[in-house]
Amino acid sequence: MTVYFINFTYFSLYKLTTHMTINELQDNIIDEFSLFDDWMDKYALLIDLGNSLEPLDDKYKNPQNIIEGCQSRVWLNADLNDGIITYQGESDAVLVKGIVSLLIQVLSGHTPDEILNTELYFIDKIGLKEHLSPTRSNGLVAMVKQMKMFALAYKSVNSKQ
Fold first, then answer.
1. Are 86 and 151 spatial neighbours (Cβ–Cβ below 8 Å)?
2. Which CATH number characterizes residue 30's domain?
3. Which of 74, 83, 85, 93 has the fewest beta carbons closer than 10 A?
4. How far apart are CA 96 and CA 34, in angstroms?
């Protein structure tokens, strides 16, 4: 058995010091996952990312924020401050919580236009979609769709102001 040490706070700490583009963040995730050949190690990384995700405030765990189509319960919330969207999320399944963490790391801290105009290529590049059950894969699609819907709603609000 091979043991690896990964700094799971790398993405968030790096983001505090410099603003990275969505593609730069995706490339970092691809690099991080490329350190592992075995999918059991990649699942362990996802679980660790899920365990490091800041808990979602209970006030956001409501029916409006639950993602339909997920096998597990997943809540997503988004706030807009100074034209930048910040996502928060949580799941009752630790693997799914890791997926939520990845999506938040990539999309949080960007404008609605940046989020709407991005292709989330890291999902295919790390092989995530092909290593999920069909119901989890559908849930992933639903999470991405909801995050983009938040961006579209905030873009619409901004354009009316």
1. no
2. 3.90.1010.10
3. 83
4. 20
Catalytic residues: 70
Contact between 22 and 118 under an 8 Å Cβ cutoff? The reply is: yes
- Would you say residue 141 lies in a domain? yes
pLDDT tens per residue across span 96-107:
999 999 999 999
- Residue 52: which H helix or E strand, with range? helix 39-52
Q: For residue 114, what are the domain limits? A: 10-160
Give domain status of residue 3, yes or no.
no
> Does residue 156 sit within a domain?
yes
pLDDT tens for each residue of 104-161: 999 999 999 999 999 999 999 999 988 988 888 999 999 999 999 999 999 987 666 5
- Share above pLDDT 70 across residues of the chain, in percent, rounded to a whole number: 86
